[in-house]
Known about the structure:
Elements: H1 4-12, E1 21-23, E2 29-31, E3 42-44, E4 47-49, H2 56-79, E5 82-93, E6 102-112, H3 115-129, E7 136-144, E8 147-148, H4 161-181, H5 198-202, E9 204-205, E10 208-209
Antiparallel strand pairs: 1-2, 3-4, 5-6, 5-7, 5-8, 9-10
Amino acid sequence: MIPICEEIEVLTNPVQLKEDEYLDESGLICCSKCHTPRQKRIEAAGKRIEPRCMCACQTADYEKRERERKHREFLDMVAKKLATESVSLYVGYSYTQCIGGAKGTAKLACETNADSIIIPAIATLYKRIVNPAYAIRRICLCCNSVVEDRGVYQLNMFDDISTQLRSRAIQETMLGIKAKYGKNSILKGVNYDPAATGRERNLQIGGHKSNG
């Protein structure tokens, strides 16, 4: 483990600019694309440190990769015949903020693995608990009370069962096509975003590039 004083010393060392960066009037690093800071100035242990942080476009790319990952994970739940009744979200802010992370849980209307139901619930929870003014360091998502999906749903008069059944049919069709023709044979629009990594990951074996 690096002692805190040594870690602060590392943070105070000059950093080199990347091709898409410049220094603003205050001497902090900024992104040349979105023109928002990639560096912050704070006081710690009697020293002024200027650690890096994500700019607006880097944060947007990170959120897009997370959205792609969620689609993939919920499709895996369908393949494994699993369902969840609630999802918990933890968002850890950059240590430069000196504040605790945001966390919360979203209760779903019923046990489900439909991305058309779970993802909007996560998006609503994210907007409710996360402060967009703070730089984000990590995001943790957890499906709670995971059970076997028996295809039996407990409904109430407010549930739209047609939406869930349609989503389930689409997911199962996608799984069938992927199993027959390969993981990249059918993709969602989110997989073609420049920040997406799904297509590349589908060609990897154990996290490494295949020779094929």
